[in-house]
Every structure is written in structure tokens, then in C-alpha cells.
Amino acid sequence: MNDVLNLAASDKEVKAAIEHRISRERIGHVTDLMIFDKRPGYTQPVKAMTFIAELELFRTVFRLPPGYEQWRCVSCLDSVWRLLNLIGCSSFPDDQKRLCLFAALFLPLNDTIYSGNRRKKIPLVDYIIRDSLKLKASDAETVISLHTAAKKILTGLLLREIKECWRVALLLSMLLHPVDILSPSTSFSNERDEVEKRSVLFKTVENAVRTQGLEKVWEMKPLVNGKEIMYHLDIKSGGPDIGEWQQKLLQWQLACPSGTAEECLDWMMKQTVSKRARTNDQ
């Protein structure tokens, strides 16, 4: 890097000017373009964040509290960027790629809570995206949802929550979970690195989701509505009981994707009889 640029950027007055004279909206807009630019051939998000870190501007730009390791953030971004390219960038819509890269950059901060001036505790990632970068509230909400989903197993219920972004959450989860759970028959040459292993694992899980018919599970309609549940199970009024049965109904549909409404009702009534029998035995 240019020594003059490095020296200028590390100057306290320059940092103060960035902090106090440049609007947060402007900083957020430029950072957004650094992370993801729709122009064809743009491949520089990792390089851009590396420059910011090397110029010792990372904490100034993102307003990170003292004690957080900026290079962990850059490393996560680098890993996801390489994995994204190995899997195929074109298989992700632009908006998902953008949010994926932001989620990767802030992944090391996903469990950190920030206490603001009013002592209100919020996720640090939420503070960075909304306040430090002045990006959309929906960006913060989606990134946090991706972090949450990445830490869980991609079950049918979770897919319904994360919806179209499930592949992004799956990609991020590759950084949080071990890659040695592949089939014993899967082998790698010494030249292949961790990114290639994670790519294979990603495709394995992705194919499993599609094979099981869960790819668009969030569009699945319940086989039985609330009124039908009340009628067949002899429930006199709505409330928590109906909500509990609707959740059980959803779980049954995910386990039996080809099941019919009649089969579902039959299962629910058997569950009710079994529950009453256990209650009477107590």
C-alpha cells in the first residue's frame, strides 16, 4: 500500500474528520458500494475491507467498541467470498449476495450486545448497520436473521422463517460448523483447502433440502384451518390451544409432505385421545 496514503489515513486529524465531518449516510453509501457493486466484474469486497483495516479506519467507519478484532471480520468475509465464488455467485440474486457479504463481515460480532447512550441494549450488528452506516432497518433485521439461522440446523420450520434467504444462511453456517461430517467416502487431495470442503458440504445439504421438497416450504398452506381444528377436536374456544395445534399441524405436514387433510385430522384426534388417556392415568 502507498506509504503516503497509509500515513495520511492513520493521522488523528484525518480520522477525526471522517468521524465528525463526513455524514454517516455518506460513509454507509460508500461502504455499501465497497461490499457489493452491481457493476459487471466487481470482485473487490475483501480487498476494500482489507484496505480499511490496514489504514486503521475499520473502527472509525463501523464505530466498533474497543477490543474487537477487525481481522476476524475481514477473514470471515474472505472465506464467504471465496465459497460464494466456488458455489457460483450467479446462483444468488444480487440482493442476497449483498446481504450475505454484510452478514459475513459482521459474523464474528453476532453474539455481541451494544449499550447505547441511553443504556438500551441492542445487538451490535444492528447498531452498526442502522446507526454507523445508516443503512435500511430491513438490512439490519435480515443480517441478524441470517446470523440466527446460520447457527441452527436447517429444519423445515427454520426454512419457513428465513424463506428465500435459506441458501445464504446455509452458506454462512459453513463457517460456524465443522466440515468433517461428510460421508467417509468423500476424499480430498492435499491441495484442496477448507473452502472446497465447505462447498461440497453446502451442496450436499442444499440437495437434501430440495430432494425432501422443502425448497419453498414457506409457501405451504395448512391442510386444516383453525375452525376445523376446533370442530374435530371439540375445542370450545380459540386461544393458546389452537396455536399449539396449528404448530403441531405444521410439523406433521413437514414430516408427511404427501399427507392429506383426512390423514392429518386422524393423527390429531389420535393424539388427543392419547393425551387424555395419559391425563386420566395420573
Descriptors:
RNA binding; CC tRNA cytidylyltransferase activity; 2 strands; 282 residues; RNA-binding; ATP:3'-cytidine-cytidine-tRNA adenylyltransferase activity; two-stranded antiparallel sheet; elongated; mainly alpha; single chain
Short description:
By secondary structure, the protein is mainly α. The chain has helices at 3-9, 12-20, 24-35, 45-54, 58-62, 70-87, 94-105, 124-132, 137-150, 156-162, 166-173, 194-211, 226-232, 240-255, 261-281, and strands spanning 113-115, 121-123.
Annotation, overall tally of beta strands? 2
Main beta sheet: 2 strands, antiparallel
Helical content band: 55-70%
State the strand order across the main sheet.
Answer: 1-2
Q: What are the secondary-structure elements, in order, as H or E? A: HHHHHHHEEHHHHHHHH
Structural class designation: mainly alpha
Q: Strand content of the residues, in percent? A: under 5%
Indicate the mean pLDDT. Answer: 84
Shape: elongated
- Detail the poorly predicted runs: 181-191
Number of helices: 15
Give the C-alpha Rg: 24 Å
The oligomeric status of these chains comes to single chain
| Cα distance spanning the termini | 75 Å
